[in-house]
TrEMBL record:
Residues 8-341 form the Uroporphyrinogen decarboxylase (URO-D) domain. It holds the Pfam family URO-D. CDD domains: URO-D_like (cd03465). Keywords: Methyltransferase, Transferase. This is Methylcobamide--CoM methyltransferase. PANTHER family: METHYLCOBAMIDE:COM METHYLTRANSFERASE MTBA. GO terms for biological process: methylation; porphyrin-containing compound biosynthetic process. GO terms for molecular function: methyltransferase activity; uroporphyrinogen decarboxylase activity. InterPro entries: Methanogen_methyltrans, UROD/MetE-like_sf, Uroporphyrinogen_deCOase.
């Protein structure tokens, strides 16, 4: 397989201008799989920005994809605001207890200081180290959990669902607090030389209705994106699961690129919002990337390229969500090799 002729930064800049490129951008969304590249345990990432950076830089150098994403789990901001997060020795962290047990305790909550609270300072350290190491050739991004999703971690998903019906003003207060944390963290990410990348799992139409999204998530998402745009950065937004009924709202919120989960259709997204946003996705991270063969990955990647390569605002080949930790290296290579094979303009013959 021929080597890349451009660095990721060169490729992305040329692609944005409609200039010649060597291949489509490709981002198998490597999160904790990076631990396996350096023989580390996932739990070792806790409190260790230098190790996170070492793993992410090593994974980028091994596979040659187009964006480094500093990410370990969804709960870093909520933990910094008081939630209890459990860190297994070698699995992805999970929420053990929300920050407050009763919505009446909301006055105890304060926005996090990303330079002091929880693991946020260590993630910022990882971004700074990665930027210093390879930032001249590849974008380094930092994952920001969006306000509505973070709010669910502060009070618990079931409680939040009840509050949306019975005490909507409390949900808005939680989202305001979460927004302030998200903005502070996004600003710190930019100061570290990286780019905020937004993830909003609980805003999925699999979890809440499109009406609830517009009432409780969209206003805060838009303000966060406006803030990032005001700092001169573009925004990639990922919402898990089914999102077809909120694509227009995601674009209207200001997202420059929408990351499409494997539960959604790239073809439908292209028809609905392709004139306004770049699309990214959506090879299945579990059924294909984790459990499939390299040939399965090749075929799934080709299918996605067929569907998305002619999107009016551009297309990035990617997994539908973060890769499971044990994703075989051969499958990650197969995605990149397939993208290199078809080149640009794509040759699918």
């Amino acid at each position: 397989m021929a080597a890349d002729a451009m660095t990721p930064l060169q490729r992305l800049a040329a692609y944005a201008k409609g200039e010649p490129i060597d291949r489509l951008p490709c981002v198998p969304i490597v999160g904790n799989t990076a631990a396996r590249v350096i023989g580390a345990r996932v739990g070792d990432f806790r409190g260790n920005g230098r190790l996170i950076a070492e793993a992410q830089v090593a994974a980028y150098r091994l596979f040659g994809y187009d964006t480094i994403r500093v990410f370990t789990d969804l709960y870093t901001q909520a933990e910094a605001m008081g939630a209890t997060v459990h860190y297994p020795a070698d699995e992805t962290a999970y929420l053990e207890a929300p920050a407050i047990a009763d919505p009446a305790e909301i006055q105890r909550l304060q926005p996090a200081d990303p330079h002091r609270d929880g693991n946020l300072p260590h993630h910022l350290e990882a971004m700074r180290i990665a930027v210093d190491a390879v930032g001249a050739e590849v974008p380094v991004t930092g994952a920001v959990t969006c306000p509505f999703t973070n709010a669910s971690f502060l009070v618990g998903a079931e409680t939040l669902a009840r509050l949306m019906l019975r005490e909507p003003e409390t949900v808005h207060r939680l989202c305001e607090l979460s927004l302030e944390t998200s903005i502070r963290y996004a600003e710190a990410i930019i100061e570290a030389g990286a780019i905020p990348s937004l993830t909003d799992a609980m805003s999925s139409s699999t979890v809440i209705s499109p009406r609830q999204f517009r009432e409780f998530s969209y206003p805060y998402l838009k303000r966060l994106i406006d803030f990032i745009h005001g700092r001169g950065k573009s925004v990639t937004l990922h919402i898990c699961g089914k999102t077809a009924k909120i694509w227009e709202a995601m674009a209207d919120a200001g997202a420059d690129c929408i990351s499409i989960d494997n539960d959604a259709s790239l073809l439908d997204a292209k028809r609905e919002v392709g004139e306004w946003v770049r699309l990214m996705g959506n090879v299945h991270p579990s059924a294909v990337m984790l459990q499939g063969t390299p040939e399965d990955v090749r075929q799934a990647t080709l299918d996605c390229i067929r569907q998305g390569h002619d999107n009016p605002r551009g297309y990035i080949v990617a997994s539908g969500c973060s890769l499971p930790t044990e994703t075989p290296f051969a499958n990650i290579r197969a995605m990149l090799d397939t993208v290199r094979e078809v080149g640009w303009p794509v040759n699918l013959a």
